Each structure stands twice: as structure tokens, then as C-alpha cells.
Amino acid sequence: MSKIGNPTSRTRVVREPHRGIYDREAVYQILDEGLVCHVGFVSDGQPFVIPMNYGRSGDHLYLHGSVASRMLRRLDEGVPVCVTVTLLDGLVFARSIFNHSMNYRSAVVLGTAERVEDPREKLEALRKLSEHITPGRWKDVRPPNETELKATLVLRLPIQEFSGKARTGPPVDDESDHALPTWAGVLPMALRAGEPINDPRLDPARGVPDYVKNYSRKK
Amino acid sequence: MSKIGNPTSRTRVVREPHRGIYDREAVYQILDEGLVCHVGFVSDGQPFVIPMNYGRSGDHLYLHGSVASRMLRRLDEGVPVCVTVTLLDGLVFARSIFNHSMNYRSAVVLGTAERVEDPREKLEALRKLSEHITPGRWKDVRPPNETELKATLVLRLPIQEFSGKARTGPPVDDESDHALPTWAGVLPMALRAGEPINDPRLDPARGVPDYVKNYSRKK
Questions:
Q1: Please, are residues A112 and B47 in contact by the beta-carbon 8 Å criterion?
Q2: I want to staple B95 with a disulfide (CB 3.0 to 4.6 A). Which of B1, B112, B182, B189 is the partner?
Q3: How many domains does chain B have?
Q4: Does residue B126 belong to any structural domain of this protein?
């Protein structure tokens, strides 16, 4: 696939066009740092937006869930889908309320999803999903058995029509507002891990693995 | 409005029904803790999901942006909209990959938005939006002037058709998996503030206000 995505009229950033990102690697960085995507689809004319986990392998996104999921079954019909990932990086405090903003990075992928039928690709997609959330975890867990694999639907979405958007940096105030006595600046925000909590049924002698202890979304 | 939302076939939680939340106050707590919502709408059959800020006043959500925003203008036509707010609370590590999960709280509101025309309601909506993000900020900033108000579109979405969903607690493993030597437990996750960064043009003698210094989404 091309290194630079070709924005369509549907993915080109119109508002604040300088914030648009069309470089594939830059958008992949956003996708790889995110933990939760919001999946949009239409049913009977009504849009629905549902939070989900996801994984990426090359130029594809993978979604998964129960074969009983209404949403996944709807997506499996090949309806148009929108997958959005948003990272909130900071609150931007200006001197005027009008110039307040947020620093963020977001990515949008449009397309239609396909069911993964090949058992090897399905298992590999589940591994990618797991490693996306917690690199290093897969080797420590009991892998899915036949029954569990049958109960799991995996969908693949090609990353073809996509774009990103980002705001960074300090507030941009009107010149005439700089004389105001108001504090202005940025409050960085990030999703952070707390202290791991052992499962009540875990042998307390068992140590917390490093990939949990040192968990971070930043690469 | 009724204290308990009446879930429709569109908002009733089907998968993992015990995770469904229909109590209005419980859903409002989710909405009030969130910073970013994901707004879904349809244009030419394609769903779009866009991250936005929002505020709540009573039984209404408020969205705002530029009058030039394609999305807001589309919503202003009265098309069906879905607003979703998701709070990620933790990663759930089970002994089997199949039983891995996430702890989260999410809220979904379906409906159609209306443009706020009344200047007093518009200003109050902007205040609610500001106080939603940073309680205490509004009194310190230069309020919007006529030009800025004209450039801003504010939309109101009644919270009528809604539901929430949540998972809490430790992993739920198959009995037969408890003998495995795998670490299991929960890694709490939360959106946290870092150290405030002064605007480069700010008088360094000016102190950071308490509502920035002690910023937290938890009430």
C-alpha cells in the first residue's frame, strides 16, 4: 500500500486543515498507542458507536468478539464501518474561553470488514489483538481451544481510506488577550496504569510479570 | 424525566445483559466523568465517528464547534445521532486468553440534536461545557464576545433514549484453569493529569490555579 494515504473527500480534514495527517506510519502510531477504538455502523438508519478493542497487523485492523454479538454480525454483512481511535494528550487553557482547546491525536478508518475464516489467520489476529493490548502476554496464557475459537468472530478491516488529525502545543490567544491576568498553558493528560491487583484466587507468592508492572502505552 | 431510563430494543444491552445500566443517575456519572465523547452520524450511507467535547445540563447533552463544521451542520439537519462516552478502568488478565477482558464504563445516547438559538441558553451551554472540562475555569477567562458567539454553533441533544454498560472486578477464569502458573489480576487504568506547562508567553510569576494543579476526573 502507498506510504501516504490518498485522502478522499470523506477523510480529508476540512476544519483546521493543517491538523490533518495522511502519512500512513504516523496514523499507525496513533492506532498502535490506542487501547480502545470506537466503531460506528448503521442499523435501520440509526448510527451506533460502540467501544471495542482492536489489533493491527500490517495494513489491516482486526476486531473480535462473540459470534452472538449483534454488532459484529452486522459488520459481517459488509456494511460501511468507521473505526476511530482518539488519544487525549492535554487540556489547552487560553486567556479567552473561545481559544480553549485540547491536544489530541485521532485516526479514522473507513471501509467494510470481512470475516476471517482461515484458522491460522484467525489465531494470529487474536495474538495481534492480545499483543496490541499487552506486549508479552500471549506466551504466558492458555491459548484458545477449539470451542473458544468457534465462539469468537474475528473481522478484518483493510486500512485503505483513512486519515489522522492532531493538535499539539500551547494555546493560541488573540494578541489583545495577552494582557489579561489569566493563567494560560497546557495540562498534559494520559492514560496511565495504577498498581496491579492480584486475582483473589491467585497464589500470593506469584510475582507480577514485568509487562504488567511496567505497563505503558508510550512506545 | 423518569429516573430509570426505559431501554428500547436499540439501547437494551443484549450481550452480557447483567452489565447493562439503565439508571439515569448512574449513566450521568459516566457522562460527567468523561472528557471526550465519540459522535456517530451518517452521511451518504457512510457512518462517521468523530471525537468531541461535550457538556451536560440536566437531561441534555451539549455539543459545540465552529459554524463551519461539516459535522455540526449535518447534525443540525436533525439526522439521527449516537453519542458514546467510554471510561477505561482496567485491563483484566485471566489465565486463558479467552477470558481476558477490560473493566470499563460506557454510556450511549441516541437521538437528534437541535440548534440552540436562545443567546442566554447558548452562553449557559458554553459555560456548562467549560465547567464540565475544568470546574472553576469559567470565572477566570475572558467570556465569548459577539463575534465569537456568532462563529460558534451549539447543539442540544435530549438524553431520552440511553443506556450504560460496565464491567468491574477480577478475571473470571474457567475452574480448570486455576491450576495454571499464569499471573492473573487487574491493572487499573485511568486518564491522569501530568505537570502543568506554562504558556511560553505567560508571566512566569503567575501561579497555576488550584483547579489545574489538582485536576482530576474523579468526583
A1: no
A2: B182
A3: 1
A4: yes
Chain A interface test: which of B38, B108, B186 (most A C-beta within 10 Å): B38
pLDDT (tens digit per residue) in B76-124 = 999 999 999 999 999 999 999 999 999 999 999 999 999 999 999 999 9
How far apart are the CA of B75 and the nearest CA of chain A, in angstroms?
A: 12
C-alpha closest to that of B69 among A133, A16, A215: A16
Tell me: pLDDT of B139 over 80: yes
Residue from the list B15, B47, B102 with its beta carbon closest to the beta carbon of A41? B47
Please, are residues A215 and A197 in contact by the beta-carbon 8 Å criterion? no
pTM here is 0.96
- Inter-chain touch B190–A186, beta carbons under 8 Å: no
Say what the alpha-carbon torsion angle B188, B191, B197, B198 is, to the nearest 10 degrees. Answer: -140
Is B110 at the interface with chain A, CB within 8 A?
Answer: yes
Q: Do A195 and B188 touch (CB under 8 A)?
A: yes
Cα of B155 vs its chain's centroid, Å: 15
Closest by CA position to B90, among listed B98, B102, B101: B102
Q: Give percent of chain B above pLDDT 70.
A: 97
In the predicted structure, residue A194 carries a pLDDT above the cut 70: yes
Q: Would you state the pLDDT for residue A10?
A: 86
Pairing type for strands B60-66 and B55-57 reads antiparallel
Partner A contacted by B153 (CB < 8 A) = no
CB of A181 less than 8 A from some CB of B: yes
CB proximity under 8 Å: B 186-205 to A: 186-202
Residue B3 domain-assigned (yes or no): no
Say how many CB pairs under 8 Å bridge A and B: 279
Evaluate whether residue A7 is within a structural domain: no
Please judge whether A36 and B198 are an interchain contact, meaning their C-beta atoms are less than 8 angstroms apart: no
Most B-contacting residue of A97, A153, A167, A192 (CB-CB within 10 A), to test interface: A97
Report which DSSP code applies to A27. Answer: H
Q: What is the mean pLDDT of chain B?
A: 95
pLDDT given at position B14: 82
Residue A115 within a domain: yes
Residue B219 has pLDDT above 80, yes or no: no
Give me the domain span that covers residue B56: 17-213
